[in-house]
Structures are given as structure tokens and as C-alpha cells.
Specification:
The complex is a heterodimer of chains A (316) and B (337). With 316 residues, chain A is mainly α. Chain A has two domains: 73 residues, no CATH class; 216 residues, Orthogonal Bundle (MetI-like fold). Chain A contains 14 helices and no strands. The radius of gyration of chain A is 24 Å and the shape is globular. Chain B has an eight-stranded mixed beta sheet with strand order 6-7-8-3-9-10-12-11, with helices on both faces. In chain B, 46% of the residues are buried. Classes of the chains: A mainly alpha (316), B alpha/beta (337). Chains A and B meet through helix 9, helix 10 and helix 14 of A and helix 2, helix 3 and helix 6 of B. Chain A: It comes from Bradyrhizobium centrolobii. Chain A: Keywords: Cell membrane, Membrane, Transmembrane, Transmembrane helix, Transport.
Amino acid sequence: MSVFVLRRLLTLLATLIGASLIIFLVLDALPGNAAQMLMGADASPDAVRALTVKLGLDQPLTIRYLQWIKGLLSGDLGNSYVYGTPVAGLIAERLVLTIPLAIMSMLITVVLALSAGIYTAANHNKLGDVGVMSLTQVGLALPNFWFAILLILLFSVRLQWLSAGGFAGWDDGIWPGIKSLLLPAISLAVVQAAILARVTRSAVLEVLREDFVRTARAKGLGKREVLWSHVLRNAMIPVMTVMGLQFANLLAGTIVIENVFYLPGLGRLIFQSIANRDLIVVRNCVMLLAAMVVIVNFVVDVLYAFIDPRIKVHDL
Amino acid sequence: MSDPASAPLIAVDNLGVRLNTSRGPAQAVRGVSFALKRGETMGLVGESGCGKSVTALSLMGLLPDSAVVSGSIRLEGRELVGLSDAGYCKLRGNRISMIFQEPMTALNPMHAIGPQVAEPLRRHKNYSAAQARKEAIALLDRVGLPDAARRVDAYPHQFSGGQRQRITIAMALACEPDLLIADEPTTALDVTIQGQILDLIADLVEERGMSMILISHDLGVIAENVQRMMVMYGGTVVESGPTNEVFRRMGHPYTQGLFRARPRLGAREGTRLRTISGTVPELADLPAGCTFSDRCPLVEDRCRAALPPMVEVGPGHNVRCLRTDVSMADHVGALSA
């Protein structure tokens, strides 16, 4: 076990270093000078040069890279070119929204998808299976922003249960915050749940065809018992892989839904920073996202080993 | 039961199984009848697709939901055809157990072997976890798994094929069933292991007074391990009788063909293996009369008219053939296939 985790950790570290290099080089290779962009096209060359020195952009590439890494490790990400405030603070402000939103949305996804996937697999080719699978087909085809607007029409405009947008924050307790994230979380979850339900169904069906399922039935276990005690754990490997990808996507790719609900999330911060050429914010946000994706994958890998005893031995 | 020694443990009468295959509905088994007394052993022989596994699975109630079973299966007089799945669950692994062909895939790779062997005990005998574990170790020890007490928490992938088959045997025997069905238990194993596993099964059957149905395509395995045998072809029984009787005077051209097709030690180099010409018919389109008629060297027009009846050719020895006068007229070897 420990060897397995250690090897995975080393891979994680190497991936992060690679990602940081690529992010740094790509953003550095972008045409245009950040100082020039900030001061506008009419600024005097002297003023632009002064700002360049002030931002440290005149330093050689390797020095700037190392300074950035040093900052990352010490938690000092520098100041935003545009707002002048620390980047770490800007990101933290957004994370208190983005992370709870991702977790809520993932929970809804998992509950919907596992129940639908297991139900349909257990009732393979029966009416319930066909019905639920048609629903997931609809879920796959729905653009989530359009579904979000329908939700707003129903729950905010018609029923007036929930607000149509904005984020209440966590200052007044946990409930107002959760309430304001509920509709966005559902909108994000619907499409994901449709995908995950299909993955779950086919994974369970595949395991149901395995010989050991017949062995378990031959021991006198009922169909339901076999499903819970023998099939699900075996079916979880592909399901968890997709879950990991979906969670990473929820952390980074929610900008459309953030815009529909006026949520100040990480996606909007990145979008605005790109528009403003606030490259120091962009660079750190992208690094953060890369790190989260890598860490989610690491967690999924370790979970594999917990679920499947064969993985520990082979040290994948 | 007033006289458990003579009353049949299991009595199968005119069993028929209709399956939905990709090529349409097929009568996988028809008109299969036999009775097995407590402690009696019977072999089921035939090529792949002849209906022997389907027969076994219908005894276990493990056919797919779409299968239609007709006829009667009685366990100590109690009718099993039409029994609910919940009712069958009380019998499976408890009174009737089954060992499958593929030990490599028959065990759940995610669970340690101990709990898998203990599962029938927990379920049928309400053993506590500790009791069941103790019993599982004893069972694993009995089936010859080395170091059972230590390896009870190991996972299936840590065992060899032969060891895994021992584990599935332990599992099948956990609740001391009355009837053991062994479906090609050694086909997937190395030849050297095959003998050990068959000996183990024979010992356990003897020791516990179980009845056994041994399914195999290997006549040698059948000859050495069972008292009676049934030869199946195209979903019907073509020959049945006491094993030594059948081997002494094979009546059905198919049985004779199977016998000649077996590989032999000491044959001259370059001697070709005898085969039965033609291929096994699809169950979806069996010939109208005798199922073997398309491949039979002795076929006549009347063979194709209707399924021939069983003819008694010796004490308890029956053959489903119209031409036993020819097929049994002379020594088996004299026939030209």
C-alpha cells in the first residue's frame, strides 16, 4: 500500500512540475507586453518601461519562473496587475463559492446517477430501464444554461422559493449560502448525472455477466443481495474514473452557469483576468486548476487500491 | 420419507427447456428424465451445446428469466419447476450445490476467499461471522488448501487455478448439500491437477453420502467417476445406463463416435484423430427426427421421420436409436464411421 501511494505521489509531483512549466512558458510566449496593455496604447515608453521593471517583467525567464515557484510554495502569489491586491486573496474569495458548488453538484450527480444506473441495470430491458434511459438521453441533450433558465423560471419566478442569482456568502450561516447555490448545482448536475448514470448502468451490466455472479446465485443469494454485495464494488472502478473527471470539470468549467446565476466563481475570475491581461492571476488560477485535477486523479487512484485488492499487489 | 434409501432424492421427468437465443427460440433440452437416489452418482456426457449445462442449470433454477421450463423436477417429492426465486434461494448452496467450469472467474476478485466460502453458512445456517470463519477454515483445510488458517484472508488472484477450484468446492460443500452438480470441474485445469481434483470430489461425495451429477465431455472422466451415465445430443438423451454397461456395449452411433474420437496413447505416429463428420446442429434448427440423423453413418429415411423412442438394450441400459440391431450387432470397432 505505502509503496503504491509513494509512487503515485511522485507521479503527482512530476505532473505538477511539468504543468507549471507549460503554464509559465505558454503565458510568457503570449504576444504583447503586460505593462503596455495595462497602461493603454497611448502611454509613454518611459512609463511602460518603469512599470515593466516594477512588475519584474524585465528579469530573465528562469529567474521569473523560480520566483513564481518560490511564491507558490510560500503562499505569496504576488499582486494582481489590475486590482493591485494579493492574488491569493482574490482566488480564495472565489474558492469559497466554487468548491462548495462543485461538492454540492457532485453529490447531486452521484445520488441521481447511481440510483438511476443501478435501477436500470437491475431492470435491464424492462420498461423502467427504457424509461430512465430515455430520460438520461434527454439529460445529455440539454444545454445546462437553458435548463438553468427553466429552473429559474420555475423556482424563482413562479414559486419564488429560491433567488434567481447571486451568492449569499457564508456569513449568515450555512443555509443561505447553500440555498443560493442549489439551482446552479442542480443545473450542473443534470447533464453530468445523465452521463454517469449511463456509465454506471453499463458497468453494472458488465459485472452481472461475470461468472462469479452465477457462483453467488448458486450459493443461494437473491438477485438483490448479489447486486449489493458482489456486483457494485466490482462496477465502481469505471464509475469512479468518470466521477473524478467530472469533479475536476466542476471546479474549472462552470463559467457559463456562473454567468447565468451571477455567481462570483473561479471561472468568472479567470475569464475576467484573461480579458484584462491580468496574467499573474491567470497563471496562478490555471496552476490551481491543474493542481486540483491532478490531486483528484491521485485520490481516485488511491481509492482504486482500496476497492480492488489486485491493484495493491501489482503496484500499477 | 419412509424409506430414504430407495426413494429418489431427485426425480426429473420429461424436462424441457426453451431458450431465447440470438437466432430465435430454441428447444435446448427436451424429454430428459432420470432419477437419482441419495449417494448415487451420474455422469452427463456430450459435446458443447448438447444441453448438458442447461439441464444442470435448470436443476439449480439458474436459467435466464426468459427460459421456459416444462416437465417436472422433484427434490424428495417436492416440485421445483415453477418454484419462486426466493424458494429456490433456500435450496441453492444448501441442498443443491454446483461447481463451475472456470475457477479463474468463478470467485469474486474483490472479496477475500474466507468470507466467500462462509457466505452459504451465514445465509443458510445463520452462523455468526466468527463461527462461519472457523468453519470456512475447516472446509478449506478439508479440500486440501495448504495453510488454510493463514490464507483465509487472501484474495482469489493470489491462488492458482487448482487451488481456486478447491476453494469453489469448499464453497459448494459448506452446507453439506444432498446433491452436488459438477459442471466440467476440471476442464480448465492442467492435466496433472485434473486427477487430484476429481479424486477430491469423489472422496467428498463418498464421505458425505452426497448424490452427484458430473458433467463432462471427457469419456475417461465419466468412466472412472460415476455409477451411471447419460449421453446427450441436440438436447435429448441418446443413451443412458450403468457406466460399465454402456462402456461394454455402446448402443448409439453417437456414443460410439465419441468413443472413437478420443485421443489415445500409444497410437502410431501420424495416426489421425477420428472425428464425427459434420458439426453439432444449431439448437434453433434441429433436424425433425433423430437429432443425430444428419451425422449418423447408419441413418435411414425412417430416422428422419420422428424422434426415435428409447429402446432397452440391457438391464437399465436404454438407447434412443432405431438401428440398434445394426449398431450393436458386432464389436464397436467393426463399425466404419
